[in-house]
Amino acid sequence: MLIKMSLRGAKRRSNLNGFSLIELMVAVVILALAIFGIFLAFTTSFQGMADARDRTVATNYAQEKIEEIKNKPFEEIVDDPTDPDEPPVGISGTKFKREVNVTVDVDGSIDELKKVTTTVSWMNRKEEEKTVTLET
């Protein structure tokens, strides 16, 4: 009679609802993968936003210099007297470097025409050099 009672108790336990250790471990792994995917998406989007911000700032620095040159009298618009072999000048307090080139119309088809090219460069988070170039 003791044997029947113990079997009946074992049968009763197997009918109880709940989670086994394996089911719990599988659920934890699935949850961890989902959280990792979300974290990766956030990281990628933040890097994209930082790159877009840097490109916008660089474009503003280039446009600022072009506007400054546009406001000068035509005779005062000359090429930067710095040595062309030297690296571009850094903008103080930033990671950006700006280079300005002024060239006179080379083919001579239009009188009094000058071309202004402004290039702003910087290093991104992956240590890749990025540039923005504006011309008038």
TrEMBL record:
Pfam families: N_methyl. Keywords: Cell inner membrane, Cell membrane, Membrane, Methylation, Transmembrane, Transmembrane helix. It is a single-pass membrane protein. The chain crosses the membrane at residues 21-42. One of its GO terms (cellular component) is plasma membrane. Residues 76-86 have a biased composition (Acidic residues). Residues 74-93 are annotated as: Disordered. It is found in: Cell inner membrane. One of its GO terms (biological process) is protein secretion by the type II secretion system. InterPro entries: N_methyl_site, T2SS_protein-GspI. Its main location: membrane. Belongs to the GSP I family. This is Prepilin-type N-terminal cleavage/methylation domain-containing protein. It comes from marine sediment metagenome.
